[in-house]
Amino acid sequence: MCPRYDPRRHTGEVPRPALLGLTSVVVVVVLVVGLAYLFQRRLIYLPSTSAPPDVANVIPDGRQVTYPTVDGLALAGWYAPGPGTTVLVLPGNAGDRSARIPLAVALRARGHGVLLVDYRGYGGNPGDPSEDGLAADAKAAHGFLVGQGVPQDRLVYFGESLGAAVAARLAREHPPRGLLLRSPFVDLPSVAAVHYPLLPARLLLRDRFPVAETVRGLGVPTTVVYGTDDEIVPPGQSAEVAAAANARTVIVEGARHNDRVLLDGRDLLDAVHAL
């Protein structure tokens, strides 16, 4: 029997069901990528919606302070002075300053002054977070400490995860006595590609946070601390940042990204104290 003649074999025409299926896939991909682009900052910045507690009840000699940013925001933070170096804590992308209370208490016990900050949009602060916005917030916190009489050579910047990028950028403009980067990533697109492998993160992201590039040739004594089982920031990326900064490295075996040992563990505290 002769096969039935199909003119599409000769014209190259795609069968209609296949064409409709292909169109649907393209529409879904475009929709997903478009939504990811429009709402990317909601995926990056995850502030707590609860109000922080009264600092007087959680940090010895701590007080709430307010300082202005260059773009007119009034930001709140917690400040506790101390006889040793003063640690400016620049947190990661989630929660608020109350999550860093154990770190502040432990640093105070070792004689350090501490400023715990919340970025714009975090901890009841006004504004919406962005890369440049967080940089402005860090500069405002630095300005507050200088205004309190803390000399530059008595300042240590502590940058946690995304805050490592904020700390590194601040160190470029105002070099501190020392820089501690806890669980830093190479840059935000590099870590986003790990968690969203099907999205073109390098093309989509407006906020880049280039940590490795920023610390290269910085010339500030730097320590990088990270855990070997970090499930958020691949340990290899933290090691790459350490190499770029020519930094001392403290590797905490078995530690995951949010484990308590990377909040106020002995190895971490020793690393801060040594700067």
Automatic annotation (TrEMBL):
MF terms in GO: hydrolase activity
Protein name, per record: Alpha/beta hydrolase
Keywords: Hydrolase, Membrane, Transmembrane, Transmembrane helix
Domain of life: Bacteria
Species annotation: Actinokineospora xionganensis
Domain spans labelled Serine aminopeptidase S33: 86-190
Transmembrane segments annotated in the record for this chain: 18-39
Gene3D superfamilies xref list: alpha/beta hydrolase
Lineage: Bacteria, Bacillati, Actinomycetota, Actinomycetes, Pseudonocardiales
